[in-house]
Amino acid sequence: MISRYSLPEMAEIWSDENRYATWARVELLASRAQALLGRVPASAVDDIRRARVPSAARVAEIERERDHEVLSFLAAFCEDIPDDSARWVHLGMTSYDLVDTALGHCLARACDLLVQAAARLRGVLADRAAEHWETVCIGRTHGMHAEPTTFGHKLAGFAFAVDRSVRRLEAARVEVAVGTISGSVGTYALIDPFVEKYVCGELGLGVEPAPSQVVARDRHAQLVQAAAALGACVEQIATEVRLLSRSEVREVEEPRTSRYQGSSAMPHKRNPTSSERLVGLARLLRGHAATMLEDVALWHERDLSHSSVERIILPDAMTVAHYQASAAADLVEGLEVFPERMRATIDRTGGLAYSSAVLADLLEDGTERERAYRAVQAAANGAIAGDGDFAALLGAQGIDAGPLGPERFLVHHDVILKRLEKLRDAGH
């Protein structure tokens, strides 16, 4: 992933340097396990432990001749190990015993960072929802005015959505944090299963229960789908910010520095570019999720068709999702909210947002439904057309609307607030 959408702690996990350092760690742990079994001399383990991690440049140099990254890594790694000890490196293992076990470790670390970022976003949303629980605004369905709600209620919905994503990511972490050191077709023919148990235990990984040389790729597909689902939740937040930021609405505004410039030609512009960026990244994650599903079905015990895809998508998906969740938390945390604009939006229509309450009162008073609906609709249509005030037009039909206000629509709002408070307590 390009540096523009990468945060350093995630980028480090997917660097060539860390990948080769993780490979070296797997090889060292495997040699220790073999030594415990009496198959590798302790002196060789010491030599392997002292070996330097080869540079990415050196591995690439050898790979230009050998066209095999793992063998090139092993050749470069063993350059720093005496020959009598180097022969014990990778004993009984096949390439993907190394690659997939190291990948499981890197994915577990990446998941932890992503869960932390998503949990922070959940907390920011819940906190700001509580802050604006009484900030009345118009609810919209189909993009049109519906009934009053509160801005806190909107944010609470987003907080619960992100919470579900956190739980999906936590479940996906369990599935991808696995390794296998089982040999060429996963039968442990040339390596004792103890080596796998020892290495994966030291790395905090589970074990693929029925290995086929590789870890099953449905695990990775599940993770990227969970990341894409989080991305879609972020997109929903960003879309709401974009819609409420429009010039004719301006109920919220993205945080701005004093040096902000929105357009090279129009100095008045205050574009919701941060939100637009988050929407674009969600599209990227959805594409990655679909492609990862293509990697699940491999030929027989394995082929290599998944490798080129994963080299791009796994680092990119985790990096993008981590950046997106972090940026979304910053956006929500600094979001400017204009309660007076929200209330003015409701008041501007002269009570049209309360039409459902007028209809409900008529029905309770015994008016036939069709007649009641048509009467209220006629008054609403007249008000929209500029023929008069909504309440006055109702009065002209002999309907006393009584006092019109948003309070009636929020009488049971505390039910949702209690649920939000439980979420906040659990998050803290």
TrEMBL record:
<dbReference type="GO" id="GO:0016829">
    <property type="term" value="F:lyase activity"/>
</dbReference>
<dbReference type="InterPro" id="IPR020557">
    <property type="entry name" value="Fumarate_lyase_CS"/>
</dbReference>
<dbReference type="InterPro" id="IPR022761">
    <property type="entry name" value="Fumarate_lyase_N"/>
</dbReference>
<dbReference type="InterPro" id="IPR004769">
    <property type="entry name" value="Pur_lyase"/>
</dbReference>
<comment type="pathway">
    <text>Purine metabolism; AMP biosynthesis via de novo pathway; AMP from IMP: step 2/2.</text>
</comment>
<dbReference type="InterPro" id="IPR000362">
    <property type="entry name" value="Fumarate_lyase_fam"/>
</dbReference>
<protein>
    <recommendedName>
        <fullName>Adenylosuccinate lyase</fullName>
        <ecNumber>4.3.2.2</ecNumber>
    </recommendedName>
</protein>
<comment type="similarity">
    <text>Belongs to the lyase 1 family. Adenylosuccinate lyase subfamily.</text>
</comment>
<keyword id="KW-0456">Lyase</keyword>
<dbReference type="InterPro" id="IPR008948">
    <property type="entry name" value="L-Aspartase-like"/>
</dbReference>
<dbReference type="InterPro" id="IPR019468">
    <property type="entry name" value="AdenyloSucc_lyase_C"/>
</dbReference>
<dbReference type="Pfam" id="PF00206">
    <property type="entry name" value="Lyase_1"/>
</dbReference>
<feature type="region of interest" description="Disordered">
    <location>
        <begin position="252"/>
        <end position="273"/>
    </location>
</feature>
<dbReference type="InterPro" id="IPR024083">
    <property type="entry name" value="Fumarase/histidase_N"/>
</dbReference>
<feature type="domain" description="Adenylosuccinate lyase C-terminal">
    <location>
        <begin position="350"/>
        <end position="421"/>
    </location>
</feature>
<comment type="pathway">
    <text>Purine metabolism; IMP biosynthesis via de novo pathway; 5-amino-1-(5-phospho-D-ribosyl)imidazole-4-carboxamide from 5-amino-1-(5-phospho-D-ribosyl)imidazole-4-carboxylate: step 2/2.</text>
</comment>
